[in-house]
Amino acid sequence: MRSPSWIRAAKWAALVLVLAVALLFPAFESDPATVNIAVFTVMYVGLATAWNIMGGYTGYVSLGHAAFFGFGAYAFGLVLAHLGIQAGYEPFLFVPIAGVLTVVLALVIGWIALRTRAATFVIVTIAMMFMVQLLAENLVGLTGGGSGLSFPVPPWTGDFFDTPFYYAMLVMAVVSLLLSWWIRRSKFGLGLLAIRDDEDKALAVGVPAHAYKLTAFVISAGLVGMIGAVYGYYVTYIYPQYAIDPLVGISLVLMVFLGGLGTLWGPVLGAVILEPAQLWLAYNFGASLLYLVFYAAVFLVVILLLPRGIIPSVGDLLKRIAARRAVGPSDTASTSDAHTVAGVPSP
Amino acid sequence: MTLILEAVVFGVLTGGVYALMASGLTLIFGVMRIINVGHGALVILGAYLSFALLRSAHIDPFVSLIITMPAMFALGVVLQLVFIRPLKEDREALSVLVTYALALGIEGLLGFLFSDNLVQLNAWYETASFAVFGFHIAYVYVFGFGLCIAILAGIFLVLYRTTFGSAVRATMLNRTAAQLVGVNVDRVSAIAFGIGVSTAAAGGVIFGMTNAFNPGSHYDLISRLLTIIVLGGLGSLRGAVIAAVGMLIIEDVTAVVISPVWASFAFFLLLVIVLVVRPQGLYGIRVRERI
Q: Quick one: which of B30, B111, B144, B287 is 20 to 30 A from A272 by CA?
């Protein structure tokens, strides 16, 4: 059933508004500290959306996506160094190469990790992340080991420094969203949702589960790798323990859960709420590690009070109100019926 | 050759400690079907508790277990009641996030209280050693190994020789069926979580005497422990013990034969190999489960 036309119009208006604000943001805001927060927020919008393609649609929770983020950054840095690319706008053209290399890694990791399901899969992705981190530390000749890997220093200065990175991150976020939207509507996406609901039944009705899961995993990892590449160029110096940070991997998962697992806009909402909060906590309490306590508290409140995320919970509420209005408040039977058939995906 | 023999002996001795920590983790998984990502942080918490008792009251680390193990048991029960039990739908994924948050909270709190400087638990048996086969073993390894064996034996006795143990094993096999035959699975879960967390306290003491640690040490620890329980087969105590000892032997031998920097890598590589050959782990059963 199509939504009423005014709802669709409102949705389009909201979309245009969000895009306009996102596009014009650096023009209005020139304070580098704020733009810096915006760069990281948009980065997490992209990361969370990319993670959601695997974690949200198929239900396979990967806690190791930080591996692809860091690998993308390292791959990009090495490509730039070996091809002798100068700083400026040119490096951005090579970001897709980092994506392709990450895809190759994700094929290998995914092939092994996806032999397992559920809890084991979660653990295997964690182990894989630490393997990649150890490789970054140990292959000193290639990665520089613990002393880090440097990027060409971007030539921009002052207030403008963050702006090119802001737009690069925005492009990545929009690409991730478009892919996520397209997958959600495609036959492939339907297959992924079927796998999430019941993998054995999905197999029985002919969904090529293994190929689908691997494809989703690889798409998700490739996007994360490209975002990692932009991140590496932005911070200009990467170390194994910061580029492949377990906290990055868990943060983006929390964002998706907060906004709504398996929804298109949930990851965006989660990232926009949590990343500025996280940066604020780290800025104000970072010195004492106490910010971790605050962060953990936010985390626990979100999971215990909103286990399904904001968008599904609010969507349910709106549908219930709409149903009540349609049939009258006394007709409780059909109200609860409308609630159960609501098209909101259950986690 | 002596070096390799030494590596094997140390692998077995430290493997015992990892076996203890991993068995707590796999017990929690078996009973509740949740992955306690906070287990490493709880081990570190146990180490810091003993560290605090040692520093303030000069209580020997091993003796301090008389205080810390019951305290950690109580903490485990409370954590289970407050954070794990409320999770209804999608428990497996949500429990990972909740326990991850607990790990971060514990890390932050310890960092706030003790700073993130490396510390180590000291005792006379940590520095004193005896010679055997031409190399020296510090007493702490032997004492620690003995303690681990004793606690593990205790856990096995409880599981296989008591009514409560039968209830735990029944819950592990089939939660609903256990409930149907009158097992109070909520109570079993809380107590099992408590037991798991108190083994973390014991593991923490030995870990803290044989390694320098800081609040961030839990990442390294939990990645190893998770690898061990996957290798052993999730929920299998026997598998966890064998995998722990096997992995530590391989790690220590790699450190001697190849290089210490590749030792941890060998650890994870073994996981990959086992997964390719046998995705369910050594003693795991192939479960057709939904996430």
A: B111
